[in-house]
Amino acid sequence: MTDLRGIGMTSQRTRMRLLDRLQAQGISNQLVLDAIGEVPRHLFVDEALAHRAYEDTALPIGFNQTLSQPYIVARMTELALQNGRPGRVLELGTGSGYQSAVLSRVATEVYSIERIKPLLDKARQRLRTLKARNVRCKHGDGFEGWSEFGPFDVILGAAAPETVPENLLSQLAPGGVLLLPVGGSSQKLIQVTLTAEGYDQTIVEDVFFVPMLEGVQR
Ligand code: SAH
Questions:
Q1: What is d(CA 59, CA 139) in angstroms, rounded to the nearest whole number?
Q2: 3-state class of 40 per DSSP?
Q3: Which helix (H) or strand (E) element contains residue 17?
Protein backbone atom coordinates (compact mmCIF):
# COMPACT_ATOMS: atom_id res chain seq x y z
CA MET A 1 0.00 0.00 0.00
CA THR A 2 1.23 3.47 -0.79
CA ASP A 3 1.79 5.36 2.42
CA LEU A 4 0.75 8.93 1.64
CA ARG A 5 0.72 10.14 5.21
CA GLY A 6 4.06 8.77 6.33
CA ILE A 7 5.36 7.62 9.72
CA GLY A 8 8.57 8.23 11.70
CA MET A 9 11.12 9.98 9.51
CA THR A 10 8.44 10.63 6.87
CA SER A 11 5.83 11.87 9.33
CA GLN A 12 3.99 15.18 9.28
CA ARG A 13 6.26 16.45 12.07
CA THR A 14 9.40 15.73 10.05
CA ARG A 15 7.85 17.56 7.10
CA MET A 16 7.04 20.57 9.26
CA ARG A 17 10.69 20.77 10.28
CA LEU A 18 11.61 21.00 6.59
CA LEU A 19 9.18 23.91 6.21
CA ASP A 20 10.84 25.67 9.15
CA ARG A 21 14.22 25.25 7.48
CA LEU A 22 12.94 26.59 4.17
CA GLN A 23 11.49 29.64 5.90
CA ALA A 24 14.81 30.21 7.66
CA GLN A 25 16.41 30.21 4.20
CA GLY A 26 14.08 32.97 3.02
CA ILE A 27 11.16 31.11 1.43
CA SER A 28 8.13 33.18 2.46
CA ASN A 29 5.36 32.54 -0.08
CA GLN A 30 2.66 30.63 1.82
CA LEU A 31 1.33 28.93 -1.33
CA VAL A 32 4.79 27.47 -1.90
CA LEU A 33 5.21 26.37 1.73
CA ASP A 34 1.74 24.78 1.70
CA ALA A 35 2.49 22.94 -1.54
CA ILE A 36 5.81 21.60 -0.21
CA GLY A 37 4.11 20.62 3.05
CA GLU A 38 1.42 18.72 1.18
CA VAL A 39 3.45 16.76 -1.37
CA PRO A 40 4.86 13.55 0.17
CA ARG A 41 8.48 13.75 -1.03
CA HIS A 42 9.20 10.26 0.33
CA LEU A 43 7.11 8.79 -2.49
CA PHE A 44 9.48 10.25 -5.07
CA VAL A 45 12.56 8.29 -4.01
CA ASP A 46 13.34 4.59 -3.54
CA GLU A 47 12.04 3.14 -0.31
CA ALA A 48 15.61 2.74 0.97
CA LEU A 49 16.01 6.54 0.86
CA ALA A 50 12.54 7.48 2.12
CA HIS A 51 13.85 8.25 5.62
CA ARG A 52 15.99 11.04 4.10
CA ALA A 53 13.22 12.54 1.98
CA TYR A 54 12.62 15.54 4.25
CA GLU A 55 16.25 16.49 4.62
CA ASP A 56 17.15 19.55 2.59
CA THR A 57 19.37 17.64 0.17
CA ALA A 58 19.27 16.38 -3.40
CA LEU A 59 18.69 12.60 -3.61
CA PRO A 60 19.56 10.05 -6.31
CA ILE A 61 16.71 8.76 -8.50
CA GLY A 62 18.76 6.46 -10.77
CA PHE A 63 20.18 6.94 -14.28
CA ASN A 64 22.74 9.39 -12.82
CA GLN A 65 19.95 11.88 -12.06
CA THR A 66 18.86 13.52 -8.83
CA LEU A 67 15.70 14.83 -7.24
CA SER A 68 16.49 18.51 -6.60
CA GLN A 69 17.08 19.82 -3.09
CA PRO A 70 13.80 21.07 -1.49
CA TYR A 71 15.27 24.57 -1.11
CA ILE A 72 15.82 24.92 -4.86
CA VAL A 73 12.38 23.47 -5.68
CA ALA A 74 10.85 25.99 -3.24
CA ARG A 75 12.93 28.87 -4.59
CA MET A 76 12.08 28.15 -8.22
CA THR A 77 8.41 27.68 -7.39
CA GLU A 78 8.42 30.99 -5.53
CA LEU A 79 9.95 32.69 -8.57
CA ALA A 80 7.33 30.99 -10.76
CA LEU A 81 4.65 32.70 -8.63
CA GLN A 82 6.08 36.23 -8.77
CA ASN A 83 3.19 37.44 -10.97
CA GLY A 84 0.58 35.45 -9.07
CA ARG A 85 -0.56 31.91 -9.79
CA PRO A 86 0.56 30.94 -13.30
CA GLY A 87 -1.85 29.46 -15.83
CA ARG A 88 0.42 27.26 -17.93
CA VAL A 89 3.81 26.07 -16.76
CA LEU A 90 6.30 24.10 -18.84
CA GLU A 91 8.83 22.04 -16.88
CA LEU A 92 11.97 20.65 -18.52
CA GLY A 93 13.23 17.51 -16.78
CA THR A 94 10.36 15.70 -15.01
CA GLY A 95 12.85 13.42 -13.22
CA SER A 96 11.04 11.90 -10.23
CA GLY A 97 7.96 14.09 -10.80
CA TYR A 98 8.39 15.87 -7.45
CA GLN A 99 8.73 19.39 -8.81
CA SER A 100 5.80 18.68 -11.16
CA ALA A 101 3.64 17.64 -8.18
CA VAL A 102 4.56 20.83 -6.30
CA LEU A 103 3.81 22.94 -9.39
CA SER A 104 0.48 21.15 -9.90
CA ARG A 105 -0.70 22.65 -6.61
CA VAL A 106 0.06 26.25 -7.52
CA ALA A 107 -0.50 26.41 -11.30
CA THR A 108 -3.57 25.71 -13.44
CA GLU A 109 -1.82 23.42 -15.92
CA VAL A 110 1.61 21.82 -15.84
CA TYR A 111 3.37 20.38 -18.89
CA SER A 112 6.52 18.41 -18.20
CA ILE A 113 9.11 16.85 -20.52
CA GLU A 114 11.61 14.12 -19.60
CA ARG A 115 14.24 12.58 -21.91
CA ILE A 116 14.76 9.31 -19.95
CA LYS A 117 11.80 7.00 -20.54
CA PRO A 118 12.00 4.80 -17.38
CA LEU A 119 12.17 7.89 -15.15
CA LEU A 120 9.16 9.36 -16.90
CA ASP A 121 7.16 6.13 -16.52
CA LYS A 122 7.77 6.11 -12.75
CA ALA A 123 7.00 9.82 -12.42
CA ARG A 124 3.69 9.31 -14.26
CA GLN A 125 2.71 6.56 -11.81
CA ARG A 126 3.47 8.75 -8.80
CA LEU A 127 1.55 11.70 -10.21
CA ARG A 128 -1.40 9.38 -10.84
CA THR A 129 -1.24 8.11 -7.23
CA LEU A 130 -1.33 11.71 -6.02
CA LYS A 131 -4.19 12.54 -8.40
CA ALA A 132 -2.23 15.41 -9.93
CA ARG A 133 -4.54 15.45 -12.93
CA ASN A 134 -3.46 18.86 -14.22
CA VAL A 135 0.02 17.55 -15.10
CA ARG A 136 0.66 16.31 -18.63
CA CYS A 137 3.99 14.61 -19.28
CA LYS A 138 5.80 13.59 -22.42
CA HIS A 139 8.91 11.66 -23.35
CA GLY A 140 10.95 14.09 -25.41
CA ASP A 141 13.76 16.61 -25.61
CA GLY A 142 13.16 19.71 -23.52
CA PHE A 143 15.27 21.81 -25.90
CA GLU A 144 12.32 21.59 -28.29
CA GLY A 145 9.82 22.89 -25.74
CA TRP A 146 6.14 21.97 -26.27
CA SER A 147 4.74 24.58 -28.65
CA GLU A 148 1.47 22.71 -29.08
CA PHE A 149 0.43 23.78 -25.54
CA GLY A 150 2.26 27.12 -25.41
CA PRO A 151 2.77 29.94 -24.98
CA PHE A 152 3.66 29.45 -21.29
CA ASP A 153 3.49 31.86 -18.36
CA VAL A 154 6.44 30.06 -16.82
CA ILE A 155 9.09 27.77 -18.31
CA LEU A 156 11.14 26.12 -15.59
CA GLY A 157 14.22 23.98 -16.20
CA ALA A 158 15.57 21.33 -13.81
CA ALA A 159 18.68 20.65 -15.91
CA ALA A 160 21.33 23.11 -17.10
CA PRO A 161 22.07 23.95 -20.75
CA GLU A 162 25.34 25.77 -21.60
CA THR A 163 23.43 28.80 -22.92
CA VAL A 164 19.81 29.98 -22.98
CA PRO A 165 18.00 28.12 -25.80
CA GLU A 166 16.38 30.70 -28.14
CA ASN A 167 13.68 28.23 -29.04
CA LEU A 168 12.39 28.18 -25.47
CA LEU A 169 12.20 31.97 -25.30
CA SER A 170 9.88 31.91 -28.30
CA GLN A 171 7.41 29.79 -26.29
CA LEU A 172 6.99 32.39 -23.52
CA ALA A 173 3.69 34.27 -23.21
CA PRO A 174 3.84 38.09 -22.86
CA GLY A 175 4.99 38.80 -19.30
CA GLY A 176 6.13 35.18 -19.07
CA VAL A 177 9.20 34.06 -17.17
CA LEU A 178 11.90 31.53 -18.04
CA LEU A 179 13.72 30.10 -15.00
CA LEU A 180 16.74 28.07 -15.94
CA PRO A 181 20.10 27.00 -14.54
CA VAL A 182 22.72 27.89 -17.17
CA GLY A 183 26.39 26.94 -17.46
CA GLY A 184 28.77 24.00 -17.11
CA SER A 185 30.92 23.39 -14.03
CA SER A 186 29.84 26.79 -12.71
CA GLN A 187 26.13 27.52 -13.08
CA LYS A 188 23.80 30.44 -12.44
CA LEU A 189 20.05 30.30 -12.06
CA ILE A 190 18.83 32.91 -14.51
CA GLN A 191 15.47 34.51 -15.02
CA VAL A 192 14.38 35.87 -18.40
CA THR A 193 11.14 37.88 -18.59
CA LEU A 194 9.36 38.71 -21.84
CA THR A 195 8.42 42.39 -21.51
CA ALA A 196 6.90 44.80 -24.05
CA GLU A 197 10.47 46.03 -24.73
CA GLY A 198 11.97 42.58 -25.19
CA TYR A 199 13.75 39.98 -23.07
CA ASP A 200 14.98 41.08 -19.68
CA GLN A 201 17.58 38.77 -18.10
CA THR A 202 18.68 38.70 -14.45
CA ILE A 203 20.88 36.32 -12.43
CA VAL A 204 19.20 34.85 -9.35
CA GLU A 205 21.94 32.81 -7.64
CA ASP A 206 24.65 30.16 -8.01
CA VAL A 207 23.22 26.66 -8.43
CA PHE A 208 24.28 23.13 -9.29
CA PHE A 209 22.08 21.05 -11.58
CA VAL A 210 22.64 18.03 -13.82
CA PRO A 211 23.38 19.01 -17.44
CA MET A 212 20.54 19.42 -19.94
CA LEU A 213 21.29 16.87 -22.67
CA GLU A 214 20.04 16.70 -26.23
CA GLY A 215 17.97 13.84 -27.62
CA VAL A 216 16.07 11.14 -25.75
CA GLN A 217 16.99 7.89 -23.96
CA ARG A 218 14.76 4.78 -24.18
N1 SAH B 1 12.45 18.22 -11.31
C2 SAH B 1 13.07 16.92 -11.14
C3 SAH B 1 14.56 17.03 -11.18
C4 SAH B 1 15.17 15.93 -11.98
S5 SAH B 1 16.86 16.15 -12.41
C6 SAH B 1 12.56 16.29 -9.86
O7 SAH B 1 11.85 16.96 -9.11
O8 SAH B 1 12.85 15.13 -9.60
C9 SAH B 1 16.75 16.75 -14.05
C10 SAH B 1 16.08 15.88 -15.07
O11 SAH B 1 16.22 16.52 -16.33
C12 SAH B 1 16.68 14.48 -15.25
O13 SAH B 1 15.68 13.53 -15.05
C14 SAH B 1 17.16 14.48 -16.70
O15 SAH B 1 17.00 13.23 -17.36
C16 SAH B 1 16.29 15.55 -17.34
N17 SAH B 1 16.79 16.15 -18.56
C18 SAH B 1 18.05 16.49 -18.90
N19 SAH B 1 18.09 17.03 -20.13
C20 SAH B 1 16.81 17.02 -20.60
C21 SAH B 1 16.19 17.42 -21.81
N22 SAH B 1 16.89 17.93 -22.84
N23 SAH B 1 14.87 17.26 -21.94
C24 SAH B 1 14.12 16.71 -20.93
N25 SAH B 1 14.65 16.32 -19.78
C26 SAH B 1 15.97 16.45 -19.60
A1: 22
A2: coil
A3: helix 12-24
Stated as kind and residue range, the H or E segment containing 71 is helix 70-80
Q: Which fold has domain 8-207?
A: Rossmann fold (3.40.50)
Per-residue pLDDT of the chain (218 residues; tens, 9 = 90+): 467 777 777 788 888 999 999 999 999 999 999 999 999 999 999 999 999 999 999 999 999 999 999 999 999 999 999 999 999 999 999 999 999 999 999 999 999 999 999 999 999 999 999 999 999 999 999 999 999 999 999 999 999 999 999 999 999 999 999 999 999 999 999 999 999 999 999 999 999 999 999 999 99
- To test the pocket of ligand 1, the residue of 91, 116, 168 to mutate (highest count of ligand atoms within 8 Å of its CB) is 116
Say whether pTM exceeds 0.85: yes
Domain boundaries, the chain: 8-207
186 noted as active-site residue? no
Q: Which residues are near ligand 1 (CB < 6 Å)?
A: 65-68, 92-93, 95-96, 98-99, 113-116, 119, 141-143, 158-159, 210, 212-213
